[in-house]
Specification:
This protein is of the alpha/beta class and 397 residues long. The protein contains 14 helices and 15 strands. The strands form three sheets. Strands 4-10-9-8-7-5-6 form a seven-stranded mixed beta sheet, sandwiched between helices. Helix 3 (58-70) packs antiparallel against helix 11 (285-300). The protein is globular, with a radius of gyration of 21 Å. The structure holds pyridoxal-5'-phosphate (PLP). Residues 104-106, 109, 137-139, 189, 193-194, 222, 224-225, 250-251 line the site of pyridoxal-5'-phosphate (PLP).
Length: 397
């Protein structure tokens, strides 16, 4: 197909919700993807923090092919080996006791919200409030876009589900002012992603933990973007030494095969009884086999260590860019391979020009360049991307 044909078919038949880049991708290898004209791009967006092993990772491809030939799906009316292996592995890696497997991030968060509500209701009929952060992102379903502390995702969808309260991120006094006996959960991304890559200050997460303990509320960490080794530990919260009651995962968990999960302590999970939640596709053997292959590779290939080391290198390189272009780069933030560079101008044009020069990154929150590459990215690849960013920013100098 010609590129123009693809673009026209999309325009004719796809719901008009995306403003896509004019790029038709065909295949990838490692940290690189190719378009249908054969042009090569270094991929430092990785499907928005999804392709944690890069493209075409042999272990992941093999696991998916083998499992597809055996059993793709059989419903949750039956047991499968990949599913029990995955939940055991996730419990071990996270320190949680119970796991539910869903199909996406939003669905994982929906499940977490339902569990927290159920838990709260069992304590008191008024214990249903969920406190979330401004600039957060938790998904696009009605409950999760309501949890998302950004009005732009909510406008037009009212009436929204009730019981959500918002506080500025990293503001302990604001959190203290809102959390009460009515709070069933505080839901936070330990490192905010879509909102512009914001890392927690000092003891913010620990403070949230203490407030939740004081009021008998569940602490939910949305690790959908920050988890799976991206920040240098399996979960970002482990790097900050704070243990929540409920954790949600998705994005990189199966390296691109759709999956989501929510994990909880025994105490939290006990609020659920048979019939309280479910999913047709969630946890099917294909997605579970893919996730197992991803988790194996993260451990065996030392990808958490790599994320910490190469991420530190990337942050250093971008800080050097900030010194070179102080009028263009306001701040560089991040942890591991979750890095943002806040610009003093809109980011879209920078992203477009980088793409022209063969580097895929994106812009979030309007003016934050976001780098969330595969976890096996190398220093040389960082150099390659930063050289392109340098060349592009040079145009405004
Ligand atoms: C991407 C994301 C979600 C939503 O995941 P989907 O799979 O798109 O539903 C939720 N929370 C965070 C932190 C995310 O980054």
């Amino acid at each position: 197909m010609q590129k123009q044909q693809v673009v026209e078919l999309d325009k004719k038949y796809f719901m008009p919700v995306f403003s896509r880049y004019q790029l038709v991708l065909s295949h990838g290898e490692g940290s690189y993807v190719y378009d249908t004209d054969g042009k090569k791009y270094i991929d430092f967006l990785a499907g928005i923090a999804v392709n944690v092993l890069g493209h075409g990772h042999p272990g992941l491809v093999k696991a998916v092919c083998e499992q597809a030939g055996k059993l793709i799906h059989c419903s949750n009316l039956y047991y499968t080996e990949p599913q029990v292996q995955l939940i055991k592995k996730l419990a071990e890696l996270s320190g949680m006791d119970k796991v539910f497997i869903a199909n996406s991030g939003a669905e994982a968060n929906e499940g977490a919200i339902k569990l927290a509500r159920k838990y709260g209701k069992m304590q008191s009929p008024d214990k249903f409030e969920i406190v979330t952060a401004e600039q957060s992102f938790h998904g696009r379903t009605l409950a999760t876009l309501t949890a998302t502390g950004q009005p732009k995702y909510q406008e037009g969808y009212e009436p929204l589900p009730g019981g959500f309260r918002y506080v500025p991120f990293n503001d302990k006094a604001a959190l203290k002012a809102v959390v009460s006996a009515k709070t069933c959960a505080v839901m936070i991304e330990p490192v905010q992603g879509e909102g512009g890559i914001h890392v927690p200050i000092d003891d913010y997460l620990q403070y949230a933990r203490e407030l939740c303990d004081q009021y008998g509320a569940m602490l939910i960490f949305d690790e959908i973007q920050s988890g799976m080794g991206r920040t240098g530990s399996f979960l970002a919260c482990q790097g900050y030494g704070v243990k929540p009651d409920i954790i949600t995962l998705a994005k990189g968990l199966a390296g691109g095969v759709p999956i989501g999960a929510f994990l909880a302590t025994e105490k939290a999970a006990a609020a659920f009884a048979p019939g309280d939640h479910g999913s047709t596709f969630g946890g099917n053997p294909l997605a579970c086999a893919a996730a197992l292959a991803v988790l194996d590779a993260i451990e065996q290939e030392g990808l958490m260590e790599n994320a910490a080391a190469v991420g530190g290198y990337l942050i250093g390189k971008m800080q050097a860019m900030q010194q070179k272009y102080p009028a263009l780069i306001k701040e560089v933030r991040g942890k591991g391979l979750m890095v943002g560079a806040e610009l003093t101008r809109p980011g879209r044009e920078v992203v477009d020009l980088c793409m022209e020069q063969g580097a895929i990154i994106n812009c979030t929150a309007g003016n934050v360049l976001r780098f969330v590459p595969p976890l096996n990215a190398t220093r040389d690849q960082v150099d390659e991307v930063v050289a392109i960013v340098d060349a592009v920013l040079g145009k405004w100098q």
